[in-house]
Amino acid sequence: MLLSAPGARLGTGELVAMTLQIIIAVDGPAASGKTTLARKLSERLGFELIETGRYYRTVGFALRAAGWNLDDTDSLGRFISDLSLPTLEAIPASEVAGEDVARFGSRAAGYAATRDHVTAWVRARLARCQDAGRGVVVEGRDAGTVACPHAWPKFYVIADVRVRAERRAAQLGVIVPSPAYDTLLADLMARDDADSTRVNSPLRKATDAIEIDTGSLGVDAALDRMLDHIADRTRRPPRGACVT
């Protein structure tokens, strides 16, 4: 196959042909833009998209619906082990989109039992995609550090917490500034702290991840930068990377 000259931006067709069966990890804090970018990457490349956060939210949804006490850690593992992956994937996205469900899922994610099961589900789905010869974009908070540490390339998407709070306010129709905005900002700061300090799979940038600051870049510019990195690294994959 004739490829573009080194340094030239590849066309989508060339890039897709070069990246078959690659696993791309996209991590970052809440409201950083990682989900939007992961979705656009998967659409551009024709890759499967695995949103790990959705698994945690669906677990949180199931626990809340069952009236579960999250302090009952002794039987939490048994409850989660009884949840099947098809059952979780069948829950409509609209059911797990609320902030209350997100908070419940974030709390549940702090327990090893939850993270162990979600990691197993993500890896099972990854295996199916790889067996089918499909590339995958995995998005979350520990995609590149825990769920698939051999993913390549890895991106860590960031933005200032106030920028992220303003984005979340725009999504929810909240006026800035306002008491409601102050609550959103405080919630994001608290979630950042909880995610980065938890014992099990804390939020952190992988040592080999490429940082993408969406506070200084628009979505399209950030996407172009990620695609350029993918094209460049696909030409020279690192040792041990997940690419066949």
Description:
The structure is a single chain. This protein has eleven helices and five strands. The chain has 244 residues and is of the alpha/beta class. It has one domain: P-loop containing nucleotide triphosphate hydrolases (Rossmann fold, 3-Layer(aba) Sandwich). It has a five-stranded parallel sheet, with helices on both faces. Helix 2 (34-45) packs across helix 11, helix 3 (52-65) packs across helix 6 and helix 3 (52-65) packs across helix 7 (112-131). The radius of gyration is 18 Å and the shape is globular. The two termini are 17 Å apart.
At the third CATH level, what is the topology name?
Answer: Rossmann fold
Number of helices, counting only DSSP H or I runs of 4 residues or more:
11
Shape: globular
Order of helices and strands: HEHEHHHHHEHEHHEH
Number of domains: 1
Low-pLDDT regions: 1-10, 15-19
Strand content: 5-15%
